[in-house]
Amino acid sequence: MGIKDKAKAFGKKFKLDSHHAIERFGVFFGIFALMGTIVIAGSGAAAIKAGSDTLSHTALYNTEFTSSKTQLKGDVDGIYTNKAGDRALVMMHFGTKVSISYNAADYQAFLLGSDTDLSTKTVKTGGIRGTFHVFGSTGYVGVLLEADEPFDRQVLNLTIRANAELSYDERQQATGNTDEAVRDSSFSKYDQWRVFFNPGADGAEKIPALEAMNFDPARAYYDVVLKAEEAKTREKLDQKLLAMRTNLAQIQSYTSDLQTTKVDGLFLRPPSVPTTVAGDEISGASAAEAENGVSTLALETDHTVPGGFDLNWRAGNVYDGYLDVLVPSGQGYVEFLAAKRQEGSDATSQQISSMKWILSDGSDLKNDYQSSDVTMRPLTNVMHNLSQAYQDYGKSKSEYQSTLLLDLLRLDVQLRDVQSNSTVNETKDFLKTLY
């Protein structure tokens, strides 16, 4: 039996048979060439440039897709493999407001071989098995393929079918199968989308999650999604520490100015230091200062702003869990974070605005002298400089402890969702492959 006969038999058996228009073109799953643009219904593969890509380098051929019936749009994050090249993960995600089934049992898939012009071929790699993974309620889904041998350098056509439709689009009734020249009947009957990829290409990224004997969805989600987001947040934390160090240097400098700036023998006495600032220090060296180029900056403080966290984030990562270090024994992380939200706002600004600026003769610069008094301008400038430095540090510290560190913990919460609520379809009937 030839490839064409196999494709027809495969389509008939699994309800993927083509209409006559597709048969005339001789392309399984409806591939239509028009004015040099390859249009594939039910997927976002219109941007594929056949001929400019090579099998040795290109791992992914369409980065977007649209489901055929419900018109749900999604992105293909990438194709990920292990070092041995016999495991591949196709990672995809839908938008946050898109309604999909979080039950992996509601999905099945069909795998065919292809090439750079997207014509249908048999799959070259032997012994491919597949499982479908829904990563909690994050909107991310993935197809894990495992083979008996390293994946051949071949474009593969993966069609994913959602058997549970949780969204409705009026266009699915209005358009029906009017584009039958570019789709087969299954795309009207079922909610489907396609991904064209080459797991044997050099461009497939290798991730630690695929090296472990047993696939861990949480590790895969961390490698693909959270690790990059964590790196961005950690960079922001590091930059904020640099800003805070500058603020503290300004405070020290302007405090020294209190002793040296005088008007007719009068000088300002140091005001009471705001609670959130007192005793704070930024230790360590920046990346530019360190010999190995790795920043070791850290906040040393005895005071945590309301709603903030005192966390040595350099010592851990999201996958190992930051919350485990912070949450007291016997308390859940939901309760812990809820309590943090109830702690109120930072009182630093109020403390600074109520500071007493007392002169060496006991008089009050703000109350006993007019702000327009030019004779006192040198002292007024020192007062404003120090006050602003305190304000800047208080704002930076609040952003560091209560905003950026919370962003880091939110990633931890996402991972816990994946750990607790992921589902998998690992039945033998999940994946059908055309050999």
Q: Residue ranges: pLDDT <50 for 5 or more in a row?
A: 18-53, 173-182
Oligomer: single chain
Element-level helix/strand string = HHEEEEEEEEEHHEEHEEHHHHHEE
Strand percentage lies at 15-25%
How many strands, what sense, and barrel or not for the largest sheet? Answer: 7 strands, mixed
The average pLDDT score comes to: 86
Terminal CA distance reads 11 Å
- Supply Rg: 31 Å
What is the 3D shape? elongated
Structural class of the helix and strand makeup?
Answer: alpha+beta
Helix content: 25-40%
Number of strands: 15
Query: How many helical stretches?
Result: 10
Description:
With 435 residues, the chain is an alpha+beta fold. The chain contains ten helices and 15 strands. The chain has helices at residues 3-13, 20-25, 171-175, 186-189, 217-260, 323-326, 333-341, 348-353, 365-368, 377-421; strands at 32-34, 37-39, 64-66, 73-81, 87-94, 107-113, 129-134, 140-146, 156-162, 191-197, 205-206, 281-283, 298-300, 423-425, 431-433. Strands 3, 4, 5, 7, 8, 11 and 14 form a seven-stranded mixed sheet that branches. It has a four-stranded mixed sheet with strand order 10-9-6-15. Strands 1-2 form a two-stranded antiparallel ribbon.
